[in-house]
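#struct-help
A.M.: can someone run this one for me? Single chain, 496 residues.
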Amino acid sequence: MTTTTSPYTTTNPTNEANPLLSEPSRSEITGDDGTKRQPWHSMSVGLLLLLLLIATFVVVEVARRNPRQTKKLAVYPYAFISPSNDASNWIAPGGYRYQEYADGSSPYRITKEIRQQSDELARIRREHVKAAMQFAWKGYTTYAFGMDEIKPVSKVGDNVWKGLATTMVDALDTLWLMNMTEEFSQARDFVAQNLTYADKNVSIICFETTIRSLGGMLSAYSWSGDAIFLEHALDIGRRIFHSFDGASTGIPFGRVNLMTGEFYNDHHDNFTPLSWVGTLQLEFRCLDALVQSNETANMRQKVENIIAVLYSLNPPRGLYPTLVRNVNVSHAEFANTHLTFGANGDSFYEYLLKAWLQGNKTEVLYRNMYDQAIQSLHDILLQESTPSGLIYLVDESDGVKIHKLHHLTCFMGGLLSLGAYTDPLGMQSFRAQRDLKTAKALTYTCYQMYARQKTGRLLESTTLLSDITNRNLPSDAFWSSPFQSLLTSDTLSFSF
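D.P.: on it. Structure tokens below:
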């Protein structure tokens, strides 16, 4: 694996001695009367002054970066409210609450007692979460068992993912973790007796099928040890891997036919989305770790090579455009200039960090690429609204910022937190603390994107209006244009 130097490493290229620390010659030191002084006396005074200066700088810097250490925080003031079993009369309390969290600060002191109350409430909520899963699973098995999805309003099943029992397979690890043993066994028997791939003459999106079907089988096997899941994982993995058959650039095609192995990009384009090729690594590396054959080793090598190819394109500022051309070119190249942590970019950055963790933090290229991208996120894409001071991420295309918020970017709170807690510089480093604060701020904004909607339901994407002069809206209102409403209608169609 290729390695790179961390962008945060600094060196002294001249290797010259610092003149402030150089020892003066005896002949240079004289008193007011012209007599020579002992050199150690002048040296001691100089060193003391230097140490005093350094100490002052350290104290000021610590106070600046850790303001909580300079003032005593108030105790967390909000009451803990247990959820009710009856939600029929529940009314959403709306947005504009807890605004002291908007900038990502931790404005309150959490005592041991408050932490215990929070833990107790979490245990109560855990049972409600499990009850919600039981309710959803019952609806799925009643109206759409074995199908990809259920439309909750019409109660009709849909094979939008080409008939791969996607909801079931994607839920296997959740059923296991929630100790829903009867439901897990029900799903396991369906997989063993009814789910096959050889008879599926359908074209699937490789990355979607990798994260849902291959990933679902691998996680189910990892938890249960049941060989039927690993057998299905290897089968679907082999079929997805035909997307590399004609990949002369090292960048695979976006679609493949599960029966015939025919491969091509979506809409037969000569490019494919960044996230489609940058979101294969975890699953195929895991498959190789479990199977350990020459075949799976080849799969692993090729999905890892994707990252090496993308890295070799050397995008400015470490942010990768969302489209990669892999047809009718001798080498892969970017097909646009659009930068985003939303659709078509999001999970590429997620997999950089998680692949580094998956490899026991030894493959430094992945971490360096992640850190460089997050640095540019702060330098270029991170914005603050007015007047509420909401922190959000913009897109950029051809150097122009696009103030559109993607629902998909709400994963960044979790990703930045994971990156902060695993930062090689340490959790208390400036970089880790910066990333954790940004994570909290972005999560608060996403919460507001839900809470400020009357339905409590977030749009697929929304524009955050600033400097409005001709609309009767606050300047940081969330607003959906007619075009964006068309995007949202795709989401609504899955409900009906």
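A.M.: thanks! The mean pLDDT is 85.
D.P.: also worth noting: The two ends are 48 Å apart (CA to CA).
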